[in-house]
Structure formats: C-alpha cells, structure tokens
Design brief:
The complex is a heterodimer of chains A (416) and B (508).
Chain A lengths: L2 H10 L2 H11 L3 H20 L2 H5 L5 H24 L2 H10 L2 H33 L7 H18 L5 H30 L3 H21 L34 H18 L1 H11 L1 H6 L4 H28 L10 H11 L4 H25 L4 H15 L1 H7 L7 H12 L2
Helix pairs in contact in A: 3-5, 3-17, 5-7, 5-16, 6-7, 7-11, 7-14, 7-15, 7-16, 8-9, 8-10, 8-14, 8-15, 9-10, 9-14, 11-12, 11-16, 15-16, 15-17, 16-17
Chain B lengths: L4 E10 L2 E11 L4 E5 L6 H8 L7 E6 L2 E3 L4 H6 L2 E4 L11 H6 L13 H15 L14 H14 L4 E5 L7 H16 L3 E6 L2 H7 L2 E6 L2 E6 L6 H9 L17 E11 L5 E11 L3 E5 L6 H8 L7 E6 L2 E2 L5 H6 L2 E4 L3 H5 L6 H5 L10 E2 L2 E2 L1 H14 L16 H13 L5 E5 L7 H16 L3 E5 L3 H7 L2 E6 L2 E7 L5 H8 L10
Parallel strand pairs in B: 3-8, 3-9, 6-7, 7-8, 13-20, 13-21, 16-19, 19-20
Antiparallel strand pairs in B: 1-2, 1-4, 4-5, 9-10, 11-12, 11-14, 14-15, 17-18, 21-22
Classes of the chains: A mainly alpha (416), B alpha/beta (508).
Chain lengths: 416, 508
C-alpha cells in the first residue's frame, strides 16, 4: 500500500474513533482501569466482610445483599471524606468562623498531601532504578538510613540558622540513602551480585542498625524507649499552618525533586546513559557507555532519593527517629512506581493516590470500623492489574500497546 | 488430478495494512514450490493463514479439491500440514525422542511413556528420508542443522504431507543449507509436497520446481527455474531493475590503518576463539573475513571494537595501541562498527529512530550542550540522515523496533557511515535483509572504500565476500588460514579453505 492510500484510509476514520484508539493505546488507560477495578473489587470485599450481610442472610438474601452494598458505599464515603474532608463540615466551619475548626475541616486533604510526600520520593527512587535497568528493593532500608543521617545532623548541630541547618540535614539524609544504594550498586557492577538480593539484605542491615542506634548511641537522654533526641527547631521543615495541619515544606521539595529527576532522566546526557543501559545494556556497551559507572551511579541516586523520603519524614513530621517511622513506604513505592509507569509525573500522581488512600483508610477504620487492611488489599488488586496489563486489556477489550512500552518493567530482573 | 493444496483469492487485512491481497497459489503433489518475496511482502502471513494461526478475511483453501476450513494449528496438523518455523520449537533439555513425541505421547502400561516405539519410528523416518539423527541425543547438544532435522522429523512423525519451510536457511551454514536441500529433494521424491519460503534467489533457483513471487501482499507471478534467472526474479521481487553485481574499480590501498598481531581472544566459554591471528588492513581496501559461522569471527570483531579484551597480542589502530581500549576510545579514533546482532547490540528498540541515530554521538556537540541534550539538533540531524539514507519510517520519532529489518539496518548504517571514519568494521551487514537493502548497503560499503576508509567485512555469505572484497582472509578455528587476493580467489578455493583444507604447499 502506498503512503497516499494509507493517508486516505486514515482520513476516513472519524475523529472519535481515532481518539479512542489513541486512548486505548496510551499508557494511561491501564493504570486508570486498574484503579477502578481495584476500587470495585475492594467494595465487594467490604460488602462480603460486613457483619450486616450475614446476620440477615437467613431471613432475606435480598436485604443481605443490599446491606452489603450499603456497607461498601458507606465505607467509601468515609474513605473519601476522611481523605479529602467533608464538604458540609467545611461549609459549617467557614460559616462558624472559628480558626481551629476551619483548620480541622481542611485537615484531611492536607494530611493526604503530607502522607503522599514520602511516596513521591520513594516512587522516584524506584523508578530511577527501573529506568536504569535496576530493581531497587532496598528503598525501605535506604529510607531508614536517610532518617538516621538527617536526624543525627538535626539534633547534634546546634546554633545553626535554619537556612543552613535544614539543607544540611536534608542532604545528609540523601547521602545516607545514597550510601545504602551505592553498596549494592558497586556489588552489582563489580561482581555481578544481583541487586535484588543485595538490596533486600541491606534492608535488614538498616533495620537492625536503627535498632542498635536507638538502644545505645542515639537514644534520647532519660528515655527508656528506643527514641532519638528531638531535632533542633532550626532543622525542622517549616509548616504553613497551625495545629492540627502538619502540611510542610517537604511537599514542594518533593515536587521540585520530581521535576529535577524528569529533567535529569530525559533531558541530560547522563540520563540518556542511564536509560540506554536500562533499555538495552548490550547496545549501551556498544555505544561506548560505561555500564559499571552507570550501574553504581543509578543505584546511588536511587538510594539518595529514598534517603530524602526518610529525611523528609523526620525533618517534616516526626522530628525524631523511631523504629517504626516508616510503615513500609519503601515497599509501597515499588508498587506505585509501576502504577506511575516509572515516569516522574506518573509517580507524583500515583503517590498522591496512595497518600490519599492511606490517609482515608485511617479515618475509615476509625469511623466505619473497616480494617485498614482493606486498603492494602485494594492496593494489591490495583497492582495485580498493573503488573498484568493483559488482564485489564482482556476485560476491557483494549488493543495491544505499542511494543516498546511493555518492555521497561521486565528489564529490572534482566540484570546483566 | 486436483493439486494437493489450493489457495484461492486469499485476502487478509491488518489495521492499516493489506497483508495479503487476493493471493492464489497451488501446490502439486511431490512438488517443491518456492514462495519468494522481500521481508514484509506477506509470505509469512499467507503461511500463518494456511497453518490456522490467522483467519483470512476472504478466500478459500482446498486440499485435494475439497474445500477446508482451518481454524487452528490443530486443524492444520489434522489436514496433513506441517510447518518448520524459522525459530525452532524444541525443548533443549529434552532428547530428540521426547521432543518428537511431545504433544502426542504414546503410553504403555499405567501411563508410562513408551519412548522405544517413538525412537523406532524416528529411526525409520531417518533412514527413509536421509535425516540422520540420534533419537537419544539431547537437543541442546545438537548443531543447528541437526535441530532443524528434528523439526522435520516431528512433522513426518505426525504424517504431514504438506511441509512448509519458513526461511529455513537463515540459521544454517552453507554446508548445512546444501544438506537441507538434499533432504527437501528426497522428501519431494517420496511424494511429500513442500512450500519453501525464502528471500534468497539462489536457493529457489537451486531446489524449487516452481516459484511464486510475492510483493506487497500480491502474488506477482509464478515461474520455473528454467524460465527465470537471478535478475528476473529480483526485479519481480523488488518491482524494479536491481543491480545484483556490485560495480567497483580496483582498490587503491593507502596508509596502514589497522594492524593485528598474534591476537588471542577467549570466548564466553573460556575457550580460545581467536587463536594467534594477525593481519594488516589499509585505507581504501575491503578485507573480507570469510568463514563458517562460529570460527571466531564474533570474538575477533568484539576484540577489535573494545567489547572484549584479548588475552594476548596487539591491536594497533592508526598507530595507537588499542589492545585494551574501550569502545568509546576506539569509536572516537574513527572506527565505525556495524554489529553482527543488530537488535541486540546496534539498536535500542524502544528508542525512537532519532535517538538511535545519535546512539554513540549523543554526548558531543551539537547534540549536547554542557550536559543538556539538544532535541532540536538531534531531530534536525536525524531527519537529514533519514533522507540521505532513504530510511523508510513515518517519522524520526517512531520507535526503531517498529521498522522493518532492512530499515533497522539502514539506521545503523546511516549512523556509522555519516561520521568521519577511518575504519569500518561490518559484521554480517546484510544478514536477513531483502534484495533491495542488500544492494543499497553493498554500494555504501564500496563508496566508503573509495573515500579511503579501511573496510573489514566479516560475512558468512561467500557470495557477499566474493563480490565486495579486495582481499579475502579465511578464518578457520580462530586462525586465518590464508589471505587470497580477489583476482586469485574462486568460490571453490575459498570454500575449501573455509572447511579447513589448506592449499597446495601450505600444509602445516
């Protein structure tokens, strides 16, 4: 067929069909459908696990089913209001004019943002690794290392002005994470030791190191609990509102870092190096790129981003180190990097979703008595759909994606 | 008597492409019928329809005059149709017998596999058709040519009468290919009917009874080897006159460019793949490295380009010692490398054409200013190359993985030849390409030679070596057994050297 014929054929398609074709081929549609499927199946689970379904089942199955729907609906309403705030309460608070009440009404949405920040850093860490062909499972450990370093700088140095102390502590956190990424990176590059195994091992080292530090060298004076001293006020990330809103400057750092990662990966020659090594190491070697260097650099940078997540949490929210300051941000980050298609913008969006879900789930548990685990199940379902796009494509009858897209995720395991 | 197989008016559309356009085709009993066409002409689509993998939008399939519907490969097998795929469908860790019985395992008492009866059948089939193979051997230990025989035996074991060979010679050495042709003839003589898919002219002229040429989804015509020749088939295939002979003047060798001394290189399996090899290469000449695949050519090229460090010996490029040089150092000294495995080494398939065109120059001006990539400069440059090298792509932003094999190779050739270079190392530059692309790439290699570039051509295609080289070095078991000037070279002489037979007075 000649080009002219092809053009004629394309022209005949209606604008709408072209639009749908593009949408179904783009990489956005699968994550969105996966999220919707996750919400739907999560709702069914809430219904199935609801007491009110079984108590009336023997009398009226119809009533039981409608109870199930009601339970699912109610829990989603609490999830949404818990995550974003309730419109009626906001209106009432504004009319009331009481400052504290207004802040309380707006708090849920700000809290969702606060919960998203570590996810942004963590997701960026994982996706930078993925893009470079490396599977960084060690984000959780790197978060702890970032936390240790930044808290230490935060409480050991006194009398520094905030504009020095904050960057100092933050960069220290990034370096701590970078160190924890550098080691498996070096092992991978020099000995071929697989980064998946080594980063998992490094996680345990980081956890136990935290335990030990909190028991002896870093324990708060006079405290019997494993807690570090509280950092100097000059090292705390500034908050913008009074109690109870914890929204802090880290959110803007996270967005700036996401933009920086995008620029680095897609606009600089260094990023070109890393992405090429990730996409096809053979061709990268052929083209004269230094695979050893790029592996070490990628793992260190990935670790640094993860370290920033730890620094951010401790300098912005907790203000001291504890054994459980990260509820598994690092592991969720692997998931959300996939959901965000390993693109910084996608990661930010996925992080906002995860932060919102997590925050809403806390409220859902408190208000509706739905276990917080249902959110984990939902996240798992979303991920299962993301990881197996074929399922989503089959259920929703989508066309095959362009070949190149599908490749990137699998590469992480390819290693050498 | 009706032909054993008839395809009538087969049409198959894919979104935006008419893959088969009203193709009719017939196969007589005991015939070898060649299906000749460039890559992407629609041969494989047609055969996949026949094998039940695709469903035609229009058209009929008749076997022995009876109209049949083939909805799956199971239907095809039941109808006596068997296919030898380009990539073998064998399980390497299983034995020949186990592979052959797979999918139709005879069982004895209590469901125990009856390997012996299958092995017996395999031996019968082997001796009937001259397909020598040991039923007890593990497939992973067999050479490629023998693995292909196992594929054929699989079909015969299932009593296929219509055998489809999809580009069967692309993985074979010339000797193995000749053996395959003998096997095909003996199959045809014993009444099997064969469809032979290929894009190589010599092969269809050698073995086929009839030849059907396919171009852009249409059957252009059917002819016989008696009525056709290379030139006629090539022009039918490409749709225009094709220059098969490369026109070139006598070489004017200039300064010494590359000197290799006593080079020893290990293979991945730590055996000496290149074992004490020396040669000189001057500007303005093409040195062809002939040899059967696997005699150390791959390792030699990798050593010369810095991808593999030699264990001994010396490589000197334009007076500089690059024995342990990195690929980038060697590239920056003016080396271009067309790699043997273009999809693995030469391209990033998930990158757009533009990025692939600057894959080894992206870091220098004007493509990078300070550290920031300059997309405008890259795009402008790549669009220039797309025009100059006639790369058929909808745009420079299309992923290179979506281009045809010939156009992928043109991307590499464009990238490598458009730099100021002193040495060009071309490994299997036309493997798997269609006639049009081969013609194009050959003329570009000669053009570079005439501009004074030293060209090292590594190829297992003897025709290609003979056509392009000014001198031919024959590699055998990691060594150069002889270097022959083109005036003194003949196919027979080079062929014997490739098999390790030394010329007179040269016996070691």
């Amino acid at each position: 067929m000649t080009d002219a014929e092809k053009k004629a054929k394309n022209a005949k398609k209606s604008a709408i069909s072209v639009f749908f074709e593009e949408v179904s081929r783009s990489s956005l549609i699968v994550p969105i459908l996966a999220i919707l499927s996750g919400l739907l199946l999560g709702g069914i689970l809430v219904g199935l696990s609801s007491e009110s379904v079984y108590s009336v089942w023997s009398q009226s199955p119809f009533l039981a089913i409608s109870n199930g729907f009601k339970a699912a609906w109610e829990s989603y309403v609490t999830l949404v209001t818990g995550a974003l705030g309730s419109p009626s309460r906001i209106i009432a608070a504004i009319q009331g004019g009481d400052g504290l009440e207004i802040r309380r009404a707006f708090n849920p949405i700000f809290e969702s943002l606060v919960r998203s920040i570590p996810y942004i850093f963590g997701g960026l860490a994982v996706s930078l690794g993925f893009r470079s062909g490396l599977f960084n499972i060690g984000v959780e450990g790197q978060i702890f290392m970032g936390g240790i370093f930044s808290v230490w700088v935060g409480y050991s140095f006194t009398g520094l002005p905030a504009f020095i102390h904050i960057p100092f502590a933050f960069v220290a956190g990034a370096l701590g994470g970078a160190l924890w990424g550098f080691i498996p990176g070096l092992l991978k590059a020099k000995t071929g030791g697989h980064e998946v195994i080594n980063t998992i091992m490094m996680n345990y080292v980081a956890f136990r190191l935290t335990d030990w530090l909190l028991r002896e060298p870093m324990r708060r004076e006079g405290s019997t609990n494993p807690l570090s001293p509280i950092i100097e006020e000059s090292a705390m990330l500034p908050q913008f509102f009074d109690e109870p809103i914890r929204f802090h400057f880290g959110f803007f750092i996270a967005l700036a870092v996401a933009a920086l990662v995008y620029w680095f990966l897609f606009k600089t020659k260094w990023g070109f190096d890393l992405r090429t090594v990730g996409a096809n190491p053979h061709a990268a070697r052929y083209a004269g790129m230094n695979i050893v260097r790029s592996t070490i650099v990628a793992m260190s940078l990935s670790g640094a981003l993860a370290g920033m997540a730890g620094a951010n949490e401790l300098l912005g929210v907790n203000h001291h180190l504890s054994q459980s300051f990260s509820p598994g941000y690092g592991f969720d980050s692997i998931a959300l990097a996939l959901l965000g298609r390993n693109h910084p913008l996608g990661v930010v969006l996925a992080a906002l979703l995860f932060g919102t879900l997590r925050n809403g789930a806390t409220r859902m548990q408190a208000a509706a008595g739905i276990p917080i685990d249902i959110i984990s199940v939902m996240q798992a379902i979303i991920l299962a759909f993301i990881a197996a796009p074929a399922i989503v494509r089959t259920i929703f009858r989508l066309k095959e994606p362009r070949k190149a897209e599908a490749e990137i995720h699998v590469r992480g395991w390819g290693g050498s | 008597m009706a032909p054993i197989l008839e395809l009538e008016g087969i049409t198959k559309r894919f979104p935006g492409v008419l893959a088969n356009d009203n193709i009719s085709f017939s196969l007589e009993e005991g015939e070898i019928h060649g299906l000749l066409g460039e890559n992407g002409a629609g041969k494989t689509t047609l055969m996949n329809i026949l094998y039940g993998l695709y469903h035609p939008d229009e058209g009929k399939i008749r076997i022995r005059g009876q109209s049949v519907r083939i909805a799956s490969s199971g239907d095809a097998i039941r109808a006596g149709i068997g296919m030898v795929h380009q990539h073998f469908m064998l399980i390497p860790v299983f034995t020949v017998t186990e592979n052959v019985m797979l999918g139709d395992e005879p069982t004895g008492f209590a469901g125990i596999l009856d390997r012996e009866s299958t092995a017996k059948r395999i031996r019968e089939i082997s001796s009937t058709y001259g397909l020598e193979v040991d039923p007890g051997a593990h497939v992973s230990t067999l050479p490629v040519g023998v693995q292909q025989r196992v594929e054929i035996i699989k079909l015969l074991y299932r009593e296929a009468n219509i055998l489809i060979f999809d580009e069967p010679t692309s993985v074979l050495t010339p000797q193995e290919a000749d053996q395959l042709f003998r096997i095909m003839r003996s199959l045809a003589e014993s009444g099997k009917s064969i469809i032979f898919i290929t894009h190589k002219l010599r092969e269809v002229l050698d073995v086929c009874d009839r030849i059907t040429v396919v171009r852009q989804g249409r059957a252009i015509g059917t002819t016989t080897p008696q009525k056709a020749d290379n030139r006629k088939l090539a022009s039918m295939m490409v749709g225009r006159e094709v220059v098969l002979e490369v026109k070139k003047s006598k070489a004017k060798p200039s300064a010494l460019t590359l000197r290799v001394e006593n080079l020893k290189v290990l293979s991945d399996r730590n055996t000496l793949a290149v074992n004490g090899l020396s040669f000189d290469l001057r500007g303005g000449e093409i040195l062809g490295i002939a040899g059967v695949q696997g005699n150390g050519q791959t390792e030699l090229v990798e050593a010369l380009t810095g991808l593999r460090h030699p264990v001994e010996g010396r490589i000197e490029l334009l007076g500089a010692d690059v024995t342990r040089g990195t690929p980038r150092q060697i590239t920056e000294l003016g080396t271009a490398h067309i790699p043997e495995d273009r999809q693995r080494d030469g391209l990033v398939l998930s990158y757009p054409v533009a990025d692939n065109l600057v894959l080894n120059t992206y870091y220098i001006q004007p493509f990078t200013e300070r550290v920031v990539l300059q997309p405008d400069a890259i795009l402008r440059y790549s669009e220039g190359l797309i025009d100059a090298f006639d790369i058929r792509t909808p745009s420079s932003l299309v992923d290179v993985g979506n281009l045809s094999g010939g156009n992928q190779q043109k991307v590499i050739v464009a990238r490598e030849l458009s730099r100021p270079i002193k040495l060009l190392i071309a490994a299997q530059p036309t493997r798997g390409l269609d006639v049009g692309s081969i013609e194009y790439i050959h003329s570009r290699l000669v053009e570079k030679r005439d501009q004074g570039v030293a060209v090292l051509l590594v190829s297992t295609e003897l025709d290609e070596i003979m056509q392009l080289s000014d001198r031919i070095a024959v590699m055998y078991r990691g060594q150069i057994v002889d270097v022959v000037a083109i005036e003194e070279a003949s196919k027979e002489r080079i062929g014997l050297l490739m098999a390790g037979v030394l010329s007179e007075g040269q016996k070691a």
